[in-house]
Each structure stands twice: as structure tokens, then as C-alpha cells.
Design brief:
With about 350 residues, the chain is an alpha+beta fold. A six-stranded antiparallel barrel has the order 1-2-3-6-5-4. A six-stranded antiparallel barrel has the order 7-8-9-12-11-10. Strands 13-14-15 form a three-stranded antiparallel beta sheet, with no helix packed on it. The chain folds into three domains: about 25-40 and about 135-240, Thrombin, subunit H, CATH 2.40.10; about 40-125, Thrombin, subunit H (Beta Barrel), CATH 2.40.10; about 250-340, Roll (Pdz3 Domain). β7 and β8 (about 165-175) form a beta hairpin. It contains five helices and 18 strands. Helix content is about 15%, strand content about 35%.
């Protein structure tokens, strides 16, 4: 009995020790939080910009100043920020990024890169005459993210607190598997913590916080709007390794304003209407007296723009005439080519 009792007691003690180790790995020690904060804070920066927001009813543009959290993800000045900076009806101009603190603080102009299709973030490229060697975050490769796991977020406090870096605690409260794996966070997300690095109890940066676009904001397949999410590292690393290209900015008189607001023609819509699954747009709004309205395009019309294809007689084309963009019918008689108004 004595030996059996001793073995049983040893097993109980071993079980308790294992449970204690597991519990220790599921909470943050203050020292670990401070190490993670000191390591990743230098990559946190402040993005300032002017938002140009188009009114879909009138076509008028409003301007307002804004700022957001930025995260340096490559030493050469590639910065990640939240995806609501660029939406269907809004774009940022005069983008500036403040890097560093105190005497080492420096502000850089930045250009907006083409927004990824698969995750609601925006990438910026800092502009500098000299090569940049900035502190940046390093994302863990394929980290395990578990339901109920506590995480730490590093963001920026508000203007009254001088945009100083701050720390928040959160937790993974749900894992959705369809249409792709999506991790939901627990609490309401302060704006200064949107696109903040998400750190697990092992000190790894496993992703960034984010908010999906709603369908009215131009969201497509991945639309989990209204709840804070964890965009896992696997969604971000391909865009960091091969950054998106720069959005081409044209002179004001060359803007291809056609007077329509659209949403993507997704495969399920194409299947419902019996169309080929090759992409396209659904027209949701047509601005009165715009080129699109004069061409007879109506809300609910389906539009597929085929760039680079030689137009055929009778095609509807988008054409630039004396610096202005318009929609016309393409007509060809023999070798003669002319454009015909849709409603002459």
C-alpha cells in the first residue's frame, strides 16, 4: 500500500505541475509584456492624411483631416495601416508618417499602394532620398492561434495623450472556419489600436487587428464587419514579401470620372444570373447628368470592362476625348472609325 500510495501521490504532483505549466503559458507576466512592448513599439508610427470622400448622390467631394496607427513591416519603409483609409468612395491624399519618438522623431511623405483584395489593410511606402533602415515588426510563420488565447495589442493613445504608445489586453473569443479561417477578438477596439500588432503569450507577433468593410463600404467576399478581428500573419506575409504596386495618380483633368458607384460581380451572383464567372461590376448608383447616365447605364446594370481588347463595331467603350472621359458606342465603317453618343 505504501508504494502504491507513493506512486499515486507522485502522479498527482506531476499532473498538477503540468497543469501549472499550461496555465502559466496562457497568461502574460508583467516582465514579458514589457519585453514585447519595448521590442515592437519602435515599429509603431502615426499616419496623418487628408481624406477625400465622394458623395455618391451628387458626385461632390468633401475633404477632412485624419490620422491612424501605422506599423512598419519592412526596414525599407513599408508601412501597414487600417483598410478603411481606402474605400469605394474615399481615398487619402497628402499622406505623412511620423516615425520615432523625442529627438529621433522624423516625418516622411508616403505614397498609397494598391489595396489588397483579400484583407482589409492598406500599405504605404515611405519616401526618402536616402535608403531607409527602420525598425520593423517580424511576424511569426504559421503561428498556432487558439480559441480563448489571451493576446496583447500595442497601439497609440489619443491626441490628448500625445499619441503615446499604449498596451491593451484582449482574447480570441471565436474562430470561424468559412469562407476562410477568421479570428474574432473580445472587446471593442479603440481606433488607435486598429492595425496594431497582436502578440501571444510566447512573445510572437501573430497578426494585426482589423475591421472588415461592410458591403455598403465596398466589402466583397470576406465581410465580417462590425466586430474586431485578428488578421493572421499568413494573410499579411505575402503582401509584405512582394508589396503591392503604387496606385497611379493622374492629373485632376484626367480623372476617369464616369459617374457610377459599383460593387464586385461575385461568382455566386454570376451563377445566379447564368453568366460566365470572369468578374465584372454591378452598378449600384448612377450620378445624374454623368457620362454613365448619358450613355444610358442604369442602377442594377452589369458592367465588364475588358482592358486591351480591340473594340468591335457596336461595342460600348470608355474613351478619353480632349482630356475628358466619356462613354460612347464604337462605330466602324470600312476604315472609318467614330464614336456615337448613346442618347444623341
Amino acid at each position: 500500500m505504501g508504494n502504491n500510495s507513493m506512486r499515486f501521490l507522485s502522479a498527482v504532483l506531476l499532473f498538477m505541475a503540468c497543469c501549472g505549466l499550461a496555465a502559466a503559458q496562457d497568461v502574460f507576466a508583467v516582465e514579458a509584456l514589457n519585453r514585447a512592448f519595448e521590442k515592437n513599439t519602435p515599429a509603431v508610427c502615426l499616419v496623418s492624411f487628408t481624406h477625400e470622400v465622394a458623395d455618391p448622390r451628387s458626385g461632390d467631394t468633401r475633404r477632412r483631416d485624419g490620422n491612424s496607427l501605422g506599423l512598419i513591416v519592412r526596414p525599407d519603409g513599408l508601412v501597414l495601416t487600417h483598410g478603411h483609409m481606402v474605400t469605394e468612395n474615399a481615398k487619402p491624399v497628402d499622406v505623412r508618417v511620423r516615425v520615432g519618438r523625442g529627438d529621433s522623431e522624423k516625418e516622411y511623405p508616403a505614397v498609397v499602394l494598391r489595396k489588397p483584395d483579400d484583407v482589409n489593410v492598406v500599405f504605404l511606402q515611405l519616401q526618402s532620398d536616402a535608403p531607409l533602415r527602420l525598425p520593423s515588426v517580424a511576424f511569426a510563420q504559421n503561428p498556432a492561434i487558439r480559441l480563448g488565447e489571451p493576446v496583447a495589442l500595442i497601439g497609440l493613445m489619443g491626441e490628448t495623450l500625445d499619441y503615446e504608445p499604449g498596451l491593451l489586453m484582449d482574447r480570441v473569443t471565436a474562430v470561424l472556419e468559412q469562407p476562410r479561417t477568421t479570428y474574432c477578438l473580445e472587446g471593442g477596439l479603440r481606433f488607435g489600436f486598429v492595425s496594431s500588432p497582436v502578440i501571444n503569450t510566447r512573445g510572437e507577433v501573430v497578426g494585426v487587428t482589423g475591421l472588415d468593410l461592410s458591403r455598403t463600404e465596398g466589402g466583397d467576399l470576406y465581410t465580417r464587419s462590425g466586430h474586431p478581428l485578428l488578421y493572421q500573419a499568413g494573410l499579411l506575409i505575402p503582401h509584405i514579401t512582394t508589396p503591392p504596386t503604387q496606385e497611379t495618380e493622374k492629373a485632376p483633368h484626367q480623372d476617369a470620372w464616369l459617374g457610377v458607384f459599383t460593387q464586385p460581380l461575385k461568382n455566386d451572383y454570376a451563377e445566379y444570373w447564368g453568366l460566365e464567372k470572369r468578374g465584372g461590376l454591378i452598378v449600384s448608383t448612377v450620378v445624374p447628368d454623368s457620362p454613365a447616365a448619358k450613355a444610358g447605364i442604369l442602377p442594377g446594370d452589369l458592367v465588364v470592362i475588358e482592358k486591351g481588347r480591340e473594340p468591335k463595331n457596336g461595342d460600348i467603350v470608355i474613351a478619353e476625348i480632349y482630356g475628358e472621359w466619356t462613354i460612347k458606342y464604337f462605330r466602324k465603317q470600312g476604315k472609318a472609325v467614330y464614336l456615337e453618343a448613346a442618347n444623341p
